[in-house]
Amino acid sequence: MMNRRELLRGAVGLAGALALGGLDAPRSQAAPGPHIPPVIDFDHNEAKLQPISKNLYLLAGLGGNILILVGDAKTTIVDSGVPTRSQDIAKAIASVSPHPVTTLINSHWHFDHTGGNAYMAGKGAHIIGHENVRRRLSRPEAIDLLHAKFPAQPKIAWPVETFTVAKTISAGSEEVRIRHVAPAHTDSDSIIHLPGANVVHAADLFFNGFYPFIDYNSGGWIGGMIAGLDHVLSLSDAHTKIIPGHGPLATRAEVQSARDMLATVRGRIQPMVSARKTLDQVIAAKPTRDLDAKWGGVVLSGDMFTQDVYEGLKRRLRA
């Protein structure tokens, strides 16, 4: 029988993903950083399609979680997965909708959510995203925690319609409200809310059941993640279906649990950052020790998450 971590890795698309040797590999084996992060290999994952309602579907396993909205004559999607799985994504969409993808909403700029942009745009999709999605896709970017660099994307992959605060569109019978939040996972994050269907796509503000990755190179930090989840909670009730950026479809209670965990971690690490403790000192204090059994080992170990939180707070508090 699969254990909890194996089940969550399957849900997030992490099966066979630890290509650099594991979640707790020592610093001596890699570039700077106390631990080697997992490299997510989406190329061998199975597409998992889950109905949410009669015209809404969740597509998982091919990058970040994709929301499919099937209208009377067109299809709208939220996020486009990784570039190597674009044809598989298109095939999965075609299995539930006879209509072309005419609108693609980007929740943020990361490769596992925008990697299929060029493919979808080449098939006629109109891409919508926050202005910082366009800005970051149009230039080289780096994610230090993952020791990763990303080249500028071709212009066809950029959002052609951008917004600063919020935008509302119609997708068939559904009203789709897109709302930018202050820097959280990145500085390009948006929440996608379908009030009529009582569905919220929280994207990478929410990793369901495990420590999230926070991109401090893109302005992300734990305080923004907490505020972002507070916004998700304000849009939801006990019956809301909440789509995380990674992990299984969630309830409001699961979002609340993740939010409370983040608040606990911030409360432990921020005083040490304010006291100008070094990264090694903070990691040695093991601030997530009692949380790791529940939240660690799927994407980030406790030490890796501590580093991630520390770096984001340091940039905020010592700027």
TrEMBL record:
CDD domains: metallo-hydrolase-like_MBL-fold (cd16282). This is Cyclase. Residues 63-246 form the Metallo-beta-lactamase domain. It comes from Capsulimonas corticalis.
